[in-house]
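Two entries, shown back to back:
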Amino acid sequence: MRGENLGELEELVLLTVGSLYPEAYAPVIKKELAEKMDRKVVMSSIHTVLTRLENKQFVCSRFGDSTPERGGKRKRLFEVTPEGFKALESLKSKRDALWGNMLQLMPNLQ
């Protein structure tokens, strides 16, 4: 792993790519974020984040077959890499530790 941190939107997009496998492509990622996270993100931001994640080697992409409903245009499908999964796992572990500390110090929040 390259040791690069994940921003909030990067984390959400990476989690969404993993949850949509094998049909994770930009328009579906955008729709999923709107529905599941109540997060409206413009398509250019999705593409920017996917490019950053690919540069960090947290996702890889391939082109699917062309379809008539897309006017013969092929989908660019994304998949979480082992490095991406490790980054998500590490971030979750760190968040869980912080939550555990907070709940231990502030038991009235439970």
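entry 2 starts here
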Amino acid sequence: MDPDPLLSRATRYTTLAAGTEAVAELEIKRSRFLAVVRRTATEAEARAAVDDLRRSHHDARHRCSAFVLGPDRDVQRSSDDGEPAGTAGLPMLEALVLRRTAAPAPDGDATDLSDVSAVVVRWFGGTLLGAGGLVRAYSEAVSQALDGATLVTRRRQRLYRLPASHADAGRIENELRAAGTTVLDTAYGAAGAELGLAVPDDDGAVAALRSRVSALTAGAGDLRPVGVDWVDSPAGRPH
């Protein structure tokens, strides 16, 4: 379950698109490193990701992990899973925490990646890599996985429902989308339609939406607030 958006200091952060994962594989001196990065909203989900890969790759020697959770990134954990202390989990965590993602202008790049967990499965190849070699291998495996990740921006948004007639719903939805308003859904029933809308958690954005709805409905639109939540929208890829 997502944290209460009203308790967060952040208004946006970056994470993986729902239902996706990012994967990369390295081989160094015959040791094989398989990195899997997933979107996880809770510690239970992050630990379940480790357990899943442990079951899938029971023949591997190590399944090291790291995760960052919450809009404010206030939950950060890592595990070396038998590798020398500080050579696996911490470098993986730093690869997540320090990752720069493309933020909307004028913010520029940001280190705001969260709600992600990384697991690196290692099959030992018979040659010791040394502490420095392990740090580089685990960090690089996560970084390469993130290179191929599909990212979204999670924004704190105010949610509204807007009733409309069947005849007007399509036109209103198209006009709102064209103006940049996020239309979450349109529900059709016997009595009419209802649009689900989201705007940034900002009084100015809400005022603009009310003005737009009034113009589209000749002042008859009844914009009904239904709360505040985190909403996904496309984001730039990391670099």
